[in-house]
Amino acid sequence: MSIEIVAHIAMEAISILENIHSKGFVHGDGKPENFCLGPPGTYEEKKLFLVGLGLATKWKDSSTSLLVQYDQRPDVFRGTVRYASVHAHLGRTASRSDDLESLAYTLMFLLRGRLPWQGDHEQNKRYLFCKKMTTSPEDLCFLCPQAFKQFLEYVVNLKFDEECNYAKCISLFDGIIILAIVMLILVCLHVMKLMHQVAQKRGHLTMEEEDDKQSKKKLRLGMPATQ
């Protein structure tokens, strides 16, 4: 996908996760297959949706607003290994940051078409865990706009009980969209300028052709050509 499209997805997906988290839930299975657009032909056909809530869990108690008890069970894994957070591989209680880390991996997959830990050993959870641990944000986001690296660095450093600054994360991708709009405007202006130059050149040639026709007509009629 183009950088601009992935940036749009990032902004909408972060907003969706903010809404889910505000209701006290963690999605728990962020991946490309769980993002979809609305029904074709409706006003929601270009709206992004996040589905697949089968692994959703609470991150806080709805009655007391207190955080759920933190736990770690290495023998328990929830999610999709390719996009799961490092904490998910360790069997830790799901938190909001895990959703955001999975989103970061999803965005890089959409942007690059492949993640470093894809391949023959992909179903080996231990291998994927080690590969994710040793792949730095710089390496994962190599040659990509800084916004993607900054987003990944921010979310992997969030603590279990720490709330994400969703507005800040969304703003990281604003620059990509603005730059795309500016570039589109510049391209349009350049095309308009070329079209104007071509039109002027054609008009000039047409006038020369008309003058040439008039001169030849006068010669055929025996009229003296204008000096």
UniProtKB/TrEMBL annotation:
Alphabetical keyword list: Membrane, Transmembrane, Transmembrane helix
Spans annotated as Disordered: 205-227
UniProt keyword Transmembrane helix, yes or no: yes
Protein kinase domain location: 1-177
Pfam families found in the cross-reference section: Pkinase
Protein family: Belongs to the protein kinase superfamily. CK1 Ser/Thr protein kinase family. Casein kinase I subfamily.
Protein name: (wild Malaysian banana) hypothetical protein
